[in-house]
Design a protein that fits this description.
This protein has 531 residues and is α+β, with helices and mostly antiparallel strands. The protein is built from 21 helices and 11 strands. It is globular, with a radius of gyration of 25 Å.
Length: 531
């Protein structure tokens, strides 16, 4: 304890010195700390009384609130434990209290639902019963006003419909050749020569932003503006810090850069959209002038990407998305998939490469599915859907190391589970890494075993909401199939062209990040295969 206090004192002194030197970020952190201390002191008495009081019947109902879990000192104990490692805190609470419990962290009540049966309360609820908006409001400065979590529920659901349209099978079929081209180009450029060593996490992060920019943001961004947009995306990403969750508009360098990047992204996409519309008008006019069907010519000329889908989308009242809303939705879709696909693709490789017999089976499947009778290698949408062994490898990596440790909603209408009622205002939480490591759901859960999903075992199908790596029910991830196609494409190209072996021990998860991936570096040794 003394060591911790000494370290905190040293950090405070360093922060104070930076503030005296005029460092605006340090001044801001000190101001936030003082404000937080004052707030904590004013709430301490009320929180202490709540923590020490027993669960009481809810108003109008003969049901109790879920049991409270507390460790350490009252008021601050859960806060400290949550800050150190929220997942481990949830695991300890589950071990003691079972599949439903509440953690009070500061003024907030987080009620956890653990296991397939409890998950039904979360995943079967409507959005007007459990609402995402208040929980993810910190994303508004990045996504923009009137977009996703800042939009009224009815508008938000329509925007989700636009995203769903952009990720339907017919669209995905068109995206696959773009993914293949990006993967082949990337590895020829960066993994050149006969052999070498690469950081798999870094390589996949770079490649996935390339494929995402081409499929989502369009040809213009990929071919002409990629470096600029990539820099702006990085600034937006860095502007979503743990501090941002509690104070999204706090005056600090990361937030200032985030806001500037958001304005610049809007300007860039407004220009791209205007240029596309002008070009389409010229094409339609040219077709009409020579007696052709202008609408047919226009449809043939349209770009194949998510940006175009959003440009063509209409709300139910006939209005179209504004340029700012289009920009915000593109950013939201990119944020939803960039880190998660990178992390899951990396874990898939790190785990699969440690089982050589599994790599042999994946390659055998590739030879059967991706090569035609003339020995030509071809990746297309239908072929990727038939890569069952690889699909299970990805799914198992996602089960063991899901990038999102908590999925959250705010209770709008009280929910009941077993003999408890979860009151309005609680944040209800489902934890994929906790739930998908339960031995009663997945046998020997700490073992990487992709065959658990193959017949006759099919452990994920015995009970609904067992595997929740992509959510489930009403809250299933719309980008699930896009992510699988992207990761399958990348690993099909890698295993076709390279032999790989892992370097060093399996990395540990980095729970200090908002989206949890392996701690870098994630080194692999590669050797180019001879045709």
């Amino acid at each position: 304890m003394g060591t911790i206090l000494a370290a905190l004192a040293n950090q405070f002194q360093a922060l104070l010195a930076r503030a005296r030197d005029g460092d605006t970020d340090a001044i801001g952190w000190l101001a936030l700390g003082v404000a937080a201390l004052v707030w904590l002191m004013t709430r301490a008495a009320q929180a202490l009384a709540t923590l020490l009081s027993p669960a009481k019947p809810a108003e109008g109902l003969e049901l109790a609130y879920p049991p409270l879990y507390t460790e350490g000192f009252p008021v601050v104990g859960n806060v400290a434990a949550f800050a150190r490692n929220p997942l481990q805190l949830a695991k300890r609470a589950y071990a003691q209290l079972g599949d439903v419990f509440t953690l009070r962290v500061g003024p907030k009540r987080f009620t956890f639902l653990v296991g397939p049966r409890a998950h039904e309360v979360f995943f079967r609820a409507n959005d007007d019963e459990l609402d995402q908006g208040p929980v993810y409001g910190f994303s508004v400065p990045v996504f923009g006003r009137g977009v996703v979590y800042d939009a009224p529920l009815a508008i938000r659901l329509e925007q989700f419909r636009f995203v769903s349209t952009a990720l339907r099978a017919a669209r995905l079929r068109e995206y696959v050749p773009l993914m293949v081209a990006e993967a082949e180009t990337y590895f020829k450029r960066h993994w050149h020569g006969t052999d070498g060593t690469a950081d798999l996490l870094k390589s996949l992060s770079e490649l996935i932003i390339l494929t995402a920019s081409r499929c989502l943001m369009g040809r213009e961004v990929r071919e002409q503006l990629f470096e600029e947009v990539s820099t702006l995306y990085h600034q937006l990403d860095q502007g979503m810090q743990p501090l941002s969750v509690f104070a999204p508009h706090f005056p600090c360098k990361a937030h200032w850069q985030r806001d500037r990047a958001r304005r610049e992204m809007r300007r860039l996409f407004a220009s791209i959209i205007a240029n596309r519309r002008k070009r389409y008008q010229e094409i339609a006019a040219q077709a009409e002038s020579v007696g052709q069907d202008p609408q047919q010519a226009l449809e043939a000329a349209k770009e194949v990407d998510v940006l175009q889908v959003f440009m063509d989308s209409q709300y139910r009242d006939g209005s179209r998305l504004t340029d700012d809303q289009i920009t915000g939705l593109l950013i939201a879709v990119l944020f939803a998939g960039q880190h998660t696909s990178t992390i899951t693709g990396t874990w898939t490789g790190l785990l699969m490469l440690r089982k050589p017999e599994l790599v042999t089976r994946v390659r055998a499947e590739q030879e059967q599915v991706l090569y035609d009778d003339d020995g030509c290698f071809k990746i297309d949408y239908d072929a990727l859907l038939r890569l069952d062994v690889m699909h299970r490898c990805i799914k198992e990596a996602l089960r063991m190391y899901p990038p999102l440790i908590f999925l959250m909603r705010e209770v709008v209408i009280p929910r009941t589970y077993r003999d408890y009622v979860i009151p309005k205002g609680d944040i209800v939480v489902v934890s994929p890494p906790l739930a998908m490591s339960l031995p009663e759901v997945f046998a020997d859960p700490d073992r990487y075993d992709p065959d658990r999903y193959a017949p006759p075992r099919e452990e994920d199908k015995r009970v609904p909401f067992s595997h929740i790596g992509f959510g489930g029910g009403r809250h299933a991830c719309m980008g699930e199939q896009f992510a699988y196609l992207q990761i399958k494409t990348i690993w099909s190209v890698i295993l076709r062209d390279y032999d790989l072996e892992p370097v060093g021990p399996l990395p540990l998860p980095d729970y200090s990040a908002m989206v949890v991936g392996p701690k870098p570096p994630c080194l692999v040794r590669w050797r180019r295969r001879t045709p």
